Amino acid sequence: MTDPEAHQTPDPSWSQADYHHPAAGWGAARSVGTFLAKEGAVVSGPRAMARMNHSDGGFDCPGCAWPDDLKGLALDLCENGVKHVAWEMTARRADRHFFAAHAVDELRGWRDADLEAAGRLTEPMSYDAATDRYVPITWAAAFAMIGQELRSLDSPDQAAFYTSGRLSNEATFLYQLMAREYGTNNLPDCSNMCHEASGLALQAALGTGKGTADLDDWETADALFIFGVNAASNAPRMLTALTHAYERGAQIVHVNPLVEAAARRAIIPHEVADMALNKATRTSTLNLQVRPGGDLALLRGIAKSVFEAHATHPAAVDQAFLARHTHGSDRYRGLVEATTWADLTTQSGLSESEIRKAGQIYLASDRTLMSWCLGLTQHEHGVDTVREIVNVLLLRGNLGREGTGPSPVRGHSNVQGNRTCGIDHRPSREFLDRLAAACDIRPPLEHGLDTVATVQAMHRGAVKVFVGMGGNFVRAAPDTVYTAAGMHRCELTVHVSTKLNRSHLDHGRKALILPCLGRTERDPQRSGLQSVSVEDSMSMVHLSRGHRKPPSPHLLSEPAIIAAMARATLPDSTTPWEWYVEDYDRIRDVMARALVGFEDFNTRVRRPRGFRIEQPARELVFHTPTRRAEFSCAPLPDVVPESDDVLVLQTMRSHDQWNTTIYSDNDRYRGIKNLRTLILMNTEDMTSRGIPQGTLVDIVATSKDGSVRELRGYRALAYDLPRGSAAGYMPEMNALVGISDYSTQSNQPLMKNLKVRVTPARADDE
Length: 766
Hints:
Layout: E1 42-43, H1 79-88, E2 93-94, H2 96-101, H3 104-107, H4 112-117, E3 120-121, E4 125-128, E5 133-136, H5 139-152, E6 159-163, H6 169-182, H7 196-206, H8 215-220, E7 223-227, H9 231-234, H10 238-247, E8 251-255, E9 265-267, H11 272-277, E10 281-282, E11 286-288, H12 295-310, H13 319-325, E12 326-327, H14 329-338, H15 341-348, H16 352-364, E13 368-372, H17 374-377, H18 382-395, E14 405-408, H19 415-420, H20 429-439, H21 451-459, E15 465-469, H22 473-476, H23 480-488, E16 492-497, E17 510-515, E18 524-525, E19 528-529, E20 532-535, E21 540-544, H24 558-569, H25 577-582, H26 584-594, H27 601-604, E22 611-612, E23 629-630, E24 647-652, E25 657-658, E26 661-662, E27 678-681, H28 683-688, E28 696-702, E29 708-718, E30 725-729, E31 754-760
Parallel strand pairs: 1-9, 2-3, 6-15, 7-8, 7-13, 8-11, 12-23, 13-14, 15-16, 16-17, 24-30, 27-29
Antiparallel strand pairs: 4-5, 4-17, 9-10, 18-19, 20-21, 21-22, 24-31, 25-26, 27-30, 28-29, 28-31
Helix pairs in contact: 5-24, 6-24, 7-18, 12-15, 12-16, 12-18, 20-26, 21-23
């Protein structure tokens, strides 16, 4: 394990920003809940609010998608969940008086954090070009505008319907039903930018687009391999599983260019004695700092270790499992054996001894689980890398048994549920046939547009209406300037939101902001208070009900907004949109007929902690062409920068951030305070470029198409990163990601693999 004392952080004597070293101690508890960080330890535990398991559903945090505690922990919370809920429950209001006081052109000059800090939206607003302001509009007039614009298009494919991961399962189902009854599969979503590679890889390898492991498997695995995950900030409650794993003697291997705080040690608040004594538990037994994109080479090196061990120890490879359940293992073995250790060390950035150590951990483990996040997927070869995880797991039969399997970590509360419930621009024919039968519609069969394709289509005028359910599309998407220009070319942009954000300001000729209820708030409909359901990272589905009074009497729920948009757009539709919204159980009854795994939905979702969607691959049932788990044989990618002056830059969140929402300019676990316009670099890379610690630099990115983008006047800070790599924050650095910078395997933007040159700032930057 890397000692946090050796963790390189900015020089605390540098006066232009206030830094704190995570190993220096934090003293008293922080302001949110019972949070405490001391001596580099991460504190996990209280999630945003306790779930109350009763028949109508408790509250589910709108933050990350980590599963609820299996034993019904009363305070299953975390710091970031508390922050997210507090952000939603703010007393500030962005009402008609706010918009009357601020022109859109003025608001474009505000920082993102200040836009959201204006508070909750209170009523529908429409853009008025004459005054350059948003002005109030009635709900009826807003829906009439949407319906008129959508009906006037030459083709339904001239509209795109985007969703972020905040949408509930019920709202998701209605949203995709509206789009498909209207006539398009243009359903881009946030998964296109995050885990698209995971779904494609797992579907090809196992016949399912999801992981097979559950929380019980995390509690029983002998070895956990964690790739490209910053758990402390993005899935804090994972730390509970990691500390428990360490305490029971499991091996925990973290693979990441950055040794994050969660890969060292943690204090869990609901462990009362540990909190009282400030006792931290280790969360790793080995940290491997691969170069960006070098994970596939490491995994292949582990496989090479397994095959070498098999020569003298036949049990190293589970031959019976391979023969009974897999296809293509011989070809894969030939590929691995032909790969040299020299190539593996060069491409991974690790020594042969480090790779072999990981291999020995894998060989010594009877039950191994492998987990990953965006550090693996946001690369050109992200699909190949996730498939390599499956390859390695299959070699030793680490599938279909307790404590084993692939386990992707979703970073948003219901992004997996969105995909399950129909938000997919490439729907299968099986899904469309079930939807047609359950809802009596004729959905389009042609595939639609994903996020990158939607941005390109808006830019060339092929998409004229953009509807966004949640999120901040302009800031989340690649090539910020290009995306904003595409939005401006639309005839109408519609954003269903809780707060003001950048996407509302880069709008179409006509623009609407439609305010919706948050998940913390009561949702009364004709039949009474409603609950919604969500799906976590491990396929558990459960109910959630808000309990707070809404911040305005003029807010509508997301299902109500979708249903009204659908009726305005499809006035002759026989779909009972209004009837569905009166009682969400009616939506769930239709979902039970349309969606595989949702049978008897209303009964099962009311069980304590809900129910788990069946995962056939977990039972060794593979819906692949061969009806077996498929090995892949991808070539080893070349991830070494093409020249010494090129760095591979990865974008990431700070600790005080949730997706594009910035709570503050601090990043406590990386030792940074009051600064976001920065680039983290290897010390030797800084020295070779003549860049002293804390000075300003210019960052130039060259895209696949040869175009150049630049950020000027960023602060360069030394950090413990492999040479040839760098890191900085999204969404600011999304401006460096060209619209052509996406994976040809998944169409995901290459947000973890930007080729940049960093030089001392020009004089006019100082």
